[in-house]
Amino acid sequence: MSSVEAPHRAKADRPAEAPASAAAQPLYAARQKVYPKRVFGKVRSVKWAVLTLCLALYYIVPWIRWDRGPGVPDQAVLVDIANARIFLFWIEIWPQEIYFLTGALILGAFGLFAVSSLFGRLWCGFTCPQTVWTDLFMFVERWIQGDRNARMKLDQGPHDTNYWVRKSLTHGVWLLIAAATGGAWVMYFVDAPTVTMQILTGHASAQVYFFVALFTGFTYLLAGWAREQVCTYMCPWPRFQAAMLDENSLVVTYRDWRGEPRGKLKAEGVGDCVDCFACVHVCPTGIDIRDGQQLECIGCGLCVDACDSVMSKLGRPKGLVAFETLKNLSASAAATAGMAPGPDRFKAGMAARQMPRFVRPRTLMYAGALTAVALVMLGAFLMRSTLNVTVLRDRAPLFVRLSDGAVRNAYTIKIVNKTRDEAPLALVLQAPEGFHMTVQDVEDDAQGRPVLHRRADGIAQYRVFVTVPHGQRIAEDTPVSFRLLDAQGRAVASQSSNFLGPKS
Amino acid sequence: MPTKIEKDGVTGRETTGHEWDGLKELNTPLPKWWLWTFYASIAFAAVWMVLYPSLPFWRGTTQWIAREAIVAEVAEANARNAPMMARLRAATPAQIAADPEMRAFALAGGRVAFANNCAACHGAGGQGGSGFPALVDDDWLWGGSLAAIHQTIAHGIRNTEDEAARTSVMPRFGADGMLTNPQIGDVAEYVLSLSGRSSDPAAVERGRTIFAENCASCHGDNGRGNREFGAPSLADQVWLYGGGKADIIAMVRNPRLGVMPAWEGRLDPAVVNMLTVFVHSLGGGE
């Protein structure tokens, strides 16, 4: 039956209903628990370093203090939702500037694309919180229950005191780490020392407890129980990252041209792979890297370390499992096709390799997009004004006819002050001769200009009237402009508007 | 139901047994816990239906209703505002206007109360309309001071519900035969001349006498109006019912007398005070 057939014919051709065979594979499968083995090596060392750095950043950043003056949070990084401000060291983001957050997310996305196209799944294997916390939880597990074999034996053995002590100890430590994780999360939203004291003394708000509990629960669940299933079943990234990778990207691969056919160490005519399963036993997602590229592979490279240590014990060259491009892999395979296993095949295969091409259209485009977004962001940030004036012209009515026949327009002027500077500003109207401006509820300075007070880190609002005397000929629509002058007489902000009059 | 489970030749895996127009699917077993999450969601929905108003005539065991929640929120907000409302009730509009805190509250609250109660006649921005006085200009029929505005809002104009309502009547000079049509035309020409718009000096001179005898007692000798009677100034550029000659003739012949309800019994005294301060701030307050 082919898919090009008309649907109704396809239906008609359908064979008679057959009962499902008793041996049919079930539609739902129980999880196969993974027992990753401890591993030493270069990649593992890098992973430890990245893990330490990420966790240190996560836990320490909320505690960095940053003096902003009285009455303002002194936390360097704080998302103050109640007061609608994001504090980032010397930067203070207002709600209408949330596009900076969008820009940062776009930067992150392009950065991820660029890194993936160059080095494969670096993010998944090294820096993703799921990986970092799972790694940490596995470390705890290994510390309390022992390595792979000991853990398997513990799970298969009797549920005696030893079993329960080790299990509850493991889960206890996991929960402690999870609580610290959830506790640190809320510190990005409320003052860290204050909320820590409140939590410890039981005086924190219900929201704080809710979010601490939520993030504690999910850290425990995702890093302790779900682990690799988050990557294989829940995360969308493994699915569409295939579009970022190509034959020039560095990925974790098994050099089958060198390893095959697998066989015992002493056997004749076999490749370098001794089928020791070291790569499988260390894998945190429980796959066999020798099966080729797989969605489940997070590219952490622990199998590289495992295989290298076996190879060096056997006195064979390292790199049977390695970070390698698919292009090199097929070049090596082509160069060694038909050759018998042995040092000659290894030399021929390695000689066929080339330096990975890091500069290629795909990476250039990602780099270009990254640079463009970064430049736009930087430009927007540098041109970000900390003092704005907005002018809203009254629309009901468009203009007012006064009893002496003068025409008046009313405006609402808002001074948006993103700084703590409260120095008053003089308001000046730029308009044709005869236009007269008054501001409700303010006093004039020595030059007769209305003095407007701004609010520190806030918006001050004024009602402004502009009047044209009776008899003066005005267009139906006259452009006018309002400027704010500082004490030195410099214009610090301005906004144009219109003065509307009757149809002439 | 699965119809025919086959073994796929390429992968060596089984199919699910389902077939859609010739398309078959390999069986990739879903993790069991995924299924349990699905069941947990169903259980959650069942619990939810018991707790909350999920079916017609079922209020849920929590008795939670969105409408009551909003009523409670409004009550909470009112309770929060109660001390300020008490201050606004006790103060005079002048005291409110002089106190920055009370003034800010009154302007914000007055804006809302104005939109709810006043905008239907006076316009969303207080711009008024034909027969409905503009509140943004500097022309006031009954006075534009805080006290005068408060009196107008509290008791209204020419209504029958409030004894203290401001009231005045303009005679129907034409309809009741008090003036003839030519006389009305002449007095209209005189009224036009008060704002410098007449082109018939002879008619103005005839109208001047008629005006002095019939109109000046309320509108004043030179047509400047009199706020005692709500008699508008005829010498300015603001016309409630239109300033053309035909409009003036129509008003002299058969005057229209605007009515405004009294708000004292309808609105909280604090709201009346807020409205007073708000209207005063629109641009014409005296």
From TrEMBL, chain A:
The chain crosses the membrane at residues 46-64, 98-119, 169-188, 208-226, 363-383. It holds the Pfam family FixG_C. Residues 285-317 form the 4Fe-4S ferredoxin-type domain. Keywords: 4Fe-4S, Electron transport, Iron, Iron-sulfur, Membrane, Metal-binding, Transmembrane, Transmembrane helix, Transport. PROSITE patterns: 4FE4S_FER_1, 4FE4S_FER_2. SUPFAM superfamilies: 4Fe-4S ferredoxins (SSF54862). This is Cytochrome c oxidase accessory protein CcoG. The gene is ccoG.
UniProtKB/TrEMBL annotation, chain B:
Binds 2 heme C groups per subunit. Its main location: membrane. It comes from the Bacteria. Its cofactor is heme c. Coiled coil: none annotated. It is found in: Cell inner membrane. The chain crosses the membrane at residues 33-52. PROSITE patterns: CYTC (PS51007). Pathway: Energy metabolism; oxidative phosphorylation. Residues 105-195, 202-283 form the Cytochrome c domain. Keywords: Cell inner membrane, Cell membrane, Electron transport, Heme, Hydrogen ion transport, Ion transport, Iron, Membrane, Metal-binding, Oxidoreductase, Repeat, Respiratory chain, Transmembrane, Transmembrane helix, Transport. Signal peptide: none annotated. C-type cytochrome. Part of the cbb3-type cytochrome c oxidase complex. Component of the cbb3-type cytochrome c oxidase. PANTHER family: CBB3-TYPE CYTOCHROME C OXIDASE SUBUNIT FIXP. Belongs to the CcoP / FixP family. This is Cbb3-type cytochrome c oxidase subunit. It comes from Roseomonas alba. The gene is ccoP.
